[in-house]
Specification:
Length: about 160
């Protein structure tokens, strides 16, 4: 049914932003066959970075999850662009890679990245279930708390 993902987004009260333009010499996504590899998305809202600092000192796990949710919204924006505007063409969220700007003693990266994983399942249902990594990073671009990349399969 055309528009079912957009209807789900509306039902969830999720507004997908315009996809962010790359800030360096790379592209936001690359399609190889039916797979789309989406560059890492950070928690940008209206072009401004959010959640500046480290999870474990500046931010709690729950705040890190909110940052990861914003990353997920930005991933969905790139998915929409890759699918020619039709999110119903997303056949499967294959993989997420989560990077958490955290202190050396912080070990709850998977809990933080759950913020992004949960969005994918909320929006895409079973098609949103994916494999993933959740790792610590000593620093991330713009000193944001979280960055998430993705691989999706299109119809």
């Amino acid at each position: 049914m055309a528009g079912s993902i957009d209807a789900k987004l509306k039902e969830l009260g999720i507004e997908v932003p315009e996809p962010a333009a790359p800030v360096a010499n790379y592209v936001p996504f690359v399609a190889v066959g039916k797979l789309v590899f989406i560059s890492g998305q950070v928690p940008l809202v209206d072009g401004k970075p959010q959640y500046i600092g480290k999870v474990g000192t500046t931010f709690s796990v729950e705040e890190g999850q909110q940052a990861a949710r914003i990353c997920a919204m930005n991933l969905i924006a790139q998915m929409r662009a890759a699918a020619g505007g039709d999110l119903d063409k997303v056949k499967r969220v294959v993989r997420l890679g989560g990077f958490v700007n955290s202190t050396p003693d912080f070990t709850q990266q998977p809990s933080v990245v759950n913020g992004a994983s949960d969005v994918m399942v909320e929006v895409f249902g079973d098609k949103g279930k994916h494999c993933r990594t959740a790792v610590s990073a000593g620093a991330l671009p713009l000193d944001v708390a979280v960055e998430v990349d993705a691989v999706v399969e299109l119809e």
